[in-house]
Amino acid sequence: QLQLQESGPGLVKPSETLSLTCTVSGGSISSSSSYWAWLRQPPGKGLEWIGTIYYSGSTYYNSSLKSRLTISVDTSKNQFSLNLGSVTAADTAVYYCGRLQKPGTFDYWGQGTLVTVSS
Amino acid sequence: QSALTQPASVSGSPGQSITISCTGTSSDVGSYNLVSWYQQYPGKAPKVMIYDVSKRPSGVSNRFSGSKSGNTASLTISGLQAEDEADYYCCSYAGSTTWVFGGGTKLTVL
């Protein structure tokens, strides 16, 4: 059974960089049929797709976040990561990592991790 | 990428059927048969209930069904049960390997 687990700081100061890692277990991140995604949900609000990465390193970003966003993959560790720079309170959210199974289903999700942006 | 439009809330009595709409544009819902629906309980991660407009993952009740007409996709839940009370989100491929979600619909079982 595939499992995903987010890890990283729960509190980030304004203007700093939010960094999270997703560890994939029970399957290979190098699967040709899968992309790997970051999504988020501000408190009391809806879901937002942040971006997606393929095991080869190809990345696809939400245009509204692109200028501040970097997603990377480490196939040797079966992990992928999120870096979001210059954060503000508007970036406070539960961040989820997930698998995007081709052609287009987010079929596995991590449990989510709350990241608060505050001084 | 603008969010897909869903009603903020819907309600129904046990045993009834309800339908949740998800309206997009000709650039997302209208152009691709890659609409999925997610159920989310408070404090939990979303779970896929419908994918590729109308396909059900293994283990999902056949009371859940999906359809699409033009720029609007729909999720129908028949034989409503108390356990169906949750938030529901639609999601569509929007081209160029990007994805857009709806704002979410809170389903209340009366």
Architecture overview:
The complex is a heterodimer of chains A (119) and B (110). Chain A has 119 residues and is an all-beta fold. Chain A contains no helices and eleven strands. In chain A, strands 2, 4, 5, 6, 9, 10 and 11 form a seven-stranded mixed sheet that branches. In chain A, strands 1-3-8-7 form a four-stranded antiparallel sheet, with no helix packed on it. Chain A is globular and about 40 Å long. Chain A starts with a strand and ends with a strand. The model of chain A has no long low-confidence stretch (mean pLDDT 97). Chain B is globular, with a radius of gyration of 13 Å. Chain B has no helices and nine strands. The chains are: A mainly beta (119), B mainly beta (110). The A-B interface holds A 37, 45-49, 52, 60, 62-64, 96, 100, 103-107, 109-112 and B 1, 3, 32, 34, 36, 38, 45-48, 51-52, 57, 89, 91, 93, 96-104.
Tally of separate helices of chain A: 0
- Determine the fraction of residues in helical runs of chain A and give it as a percent range: under 10%
Order of helices and strands of chain B: EEEEEEEEE
Q: Distance between the terminal alpha carbons of chain A, to the nearest Å?
A: 39 Å
Percent strand of chain A equals: over 45%
Summarize the structure.
The complex is a heterodimer of chains A (119) and B (110). Chain A is mainly beta.
Question: What keyword list fits this structure?
Answer:
heterodimer; A: mainly beta; seven-stranded mixed beta sheet; globular; B: mainly beta; six-stranded mixed beta sheet
